[in-house]
Design goal:
The structure is a homodimer. Chain A is about 35% helix and about 25% strand. Chain A is an alpha/beta fold. Chain A has three domains: about 140 residues, Rossmann fold, CATH 3.40.50; about 160 residues, Dihydrodipicolinate Reductase, domain 2 (2-Layer Sandwich); about 60 residues, Alpha-Beta Plaits. Chains A and B meet through helix 1, helix 5, strand 12 and helix 11 of A and helix 1, helix 5, strand 12 and helix 11 of B.
Chain lengths: ~400, ~400
């Protein structure tokens, strides 16, 4: 029997307890017998069945030689960092859903784990319950990954899907998403793309083996996307998605931005709060992973799967991580692509000629067009010489 | 350095050598140093660079204590079975792409592996390069899987996609697929659904822990799908896909058949030779895995990923398998569903009333309709009482 401690009894932490309690027999039949012995929280939850397992002092857990794995679901990078480090120093593997901590201190914590014969695992930090980290670490081991391209934030995907389907504006849909609990009261981290950016930073670190900092990644959110964009998108046979991407050809280039997604892309049908990530690699070509990128039980299940693996391969370092060497990104604007551009009707012909756009869609006041393929620098240079440009969205 | 032997230098076997030769440095940086020492084949490939590694006698390999993993890509269930068993009995892990052998003798070979401290791995036997086996074994460890539902055969998906997009008939598209190498000269195993059936049998075994036999699974191919079906499908906003499914609620029920897939399903956008598999489980809800289900390098990469894991966790049993106990399937016709039915126009109103179909699509001679939800037995009973029925396709 492997005794587990959970750090933090919030949404994901209570989910971890629920997953282990509910599916313990099933996991036992698969070879791992797990039990939650302690839950660390500053609250005592008196009256709740969990209260008998609540401890307020982390040392009770760290000094109990029976504990073999900690599930860290506290969030933040202060106490979570300190407690995770201490656990790893005791040889206790730590499995986390805390993307902030993984992005900020992952390299150091993985090194600590390696030095103490245990593992620091973080499947749940990216894509919730979708096995992305495990796929990159364990399945695509014979693959050179060229590009990761995906929808990594469920809140923005919900908002964009609703705007697309109902023709509603951003503010209206955001308000509805907040009422339904799909968006936070302060939605900044989601709608400005910071959450997706942290996640693509973790994937960039994992693939490159160096430490990517999210602040180095060009990030544009969805707050400027409007109903007129969706009207044009529909006529182009596209949807609009917030795409986090990282390209590993000739250096590493990352960018988070809204994009027009054509109907033939498997990402086009990733709707609502679902996430979907396309990975392109040299032998396998495109593969895609789709599922719930957030939510109590989906995320908790990924934390528990990590704990399962730590117990199963006790004594072996299970994860693969990255070094503390900083990843220096190359300029994302060196990548080639196409660009959807809205121009006022008076200047549309000149813009189309300059951008090499063959098809134009004319609305009452504006014309939408898609540029020829060119790199971002060239595009921006051409754009700066044009009059009447309303906006552009990457294709 | 882990020395590898490859059994069979056909399409996948030569792919395994290519993947290891090309990405050896990359895999070494990920912690596993692999080298192909021998290739077993009855041919000698004189003049080919591989010839120096070719051996014709399996005992040379089995008696070399340096060999730690065998990649079996011979196909068939006679020599492949004998050689795999002998390797496992020597404590050499075997990684295979051979679905016929896995389906027929997997349980026995996994038992042999367990008894000899090694592993029998078969990621490449289902879904080519898509990490399905690994996801079920290693990622969804905390999940109770309710249902697997997917496109597991690239040849039929290519044919159906072409019929859908070009309005061409089955025979014409099959001929084209054969010319392009997407379909075999004798296409029976693909177009009659047997290949997809073997794969869903392997997944059913893996999830249930018992040995599923493909002959026990109701299987219907795509040879009866015609252009009129696609005309109706388009008007219903659907595509038609060959779906292999297994349901684990209240026993285990499996069926392989063409189905109408609505536009909002992520399987709708799985086109051409790609495969896509939806897994529904209790904590994660729906997740989907998409990629190339066949092809030399994609399949070889999955074999090599298995070998990587065997080397990495040398001495631990890596895979999870099933027992030799026979899986007794429950009746698939007990499952509820909806059914698309074509009826001649004279009998359409009576059929719609009997089947609870609300919407009808009228063509020149026939009317298409979708039944209310009912179980398969009830549907077939109602159908047998109707006149003028042309055909039905599951929804």
């Amino acid at each position: 029997m492997a005794e587990i401690a959970v750090f933090g009894y919030g949404t994901v932490g209570s989910g971890v307890v629920e997953v282990i309690d509910r599916n313990a027999e099933l996991m036992k039949s698969r070879g791992v017998d797990m039990h939650v012995k302690y839950v660390l929280d500053i609250r005592d939850f008196s009256g709740d069945p969990i209260s008998s397992r609540i401890v307020n002092d982390v040392d009770v857990i760290l000094n109990d030689p029976e504990i073999s794995v900690v599930c860290e679901t506290m969030g933040g990078a202060t106490f979570a960092y300190e407690y995770s480090r201490k656990a790893l120093e005791k040889g206790i593997s730590v499995c986390t859903s805390n993307k902030e901590l993984v992005e900020a201190k992952g390299a150091e914590l993985m090194k600590t784990a390696r030095e103490h014969g245990c593992s620091y695992m973080f499947e749940a930090s990216v894509g919730g319950g979708i096995p992305l980290i495990r796929t990159i670490n364990d399945a695509l081991t014979a693959e050179r990954i060229d590009r990761i391209y995906g929808i990594l934030n469920g809140t923005t995907n919900y908002i964009l899907t609703k705007m697309d389907e109902c023709g509603a504006g951003f503010d209206e849909v955001l308000k509805e998403a907040q009422e339904l609990g799909y968006a936070e009261k302060d939605p900044t981290a989601d709608v400005e793309g910071h959450d997706a950016c942290r996640k693509i930073a973790i994937l960039a670190s994992l693939v490159s083996g160096k430490c990517a900092e999210w602040k180095d990644i060009d990030t544009e959110g969805i707050t400027n996307i409007d109903t007129e964009d969706f009207r044009f998108a529909k006529e182009l046979g596209c949807s609009i998605k917030l795409i986090a991407m990282c390209d590993f050809n000739d250096g590493c280039r990352a960018i988070v931005s809204p994009r027009m997604i054509t109907a033939d892309s498997p990402l086009n049908s990733v709707k609502g709060v679902f996430n979907g990530v396309l990975i392109h690699s040299d032998m396998l070509d495109d593969s895609m992973y789709y599922g719930r990128g957030a939510g109590k039980l989906a995320t908790a299940s990924a934390v528990v799967a990590d704990a399962f693996e730590c117990v199963r391969f006790d004594g072996k370092e299970v994860g693969r991580g990255w070094s503390e060497e900083k990843l220096v990104f190359a300029d994302a604007d060196d990548m080639k692509g196409r660009f959807f551009v809205r121009v006022d009707n008076a200047n549309a012909d000149a813009a189309a000629a300059a951008l090499g756009a063959s098809d134009k869609i004319k609305h009452e006041n504006e014309t939408g067009m898609v540029s020829a393929e060119m790199n971002g620098k060239e595009f921006k240079k051409k754009l700066s010489g044009l009059s009447g440009v309303v906006k552009f969205i990457r294709f």
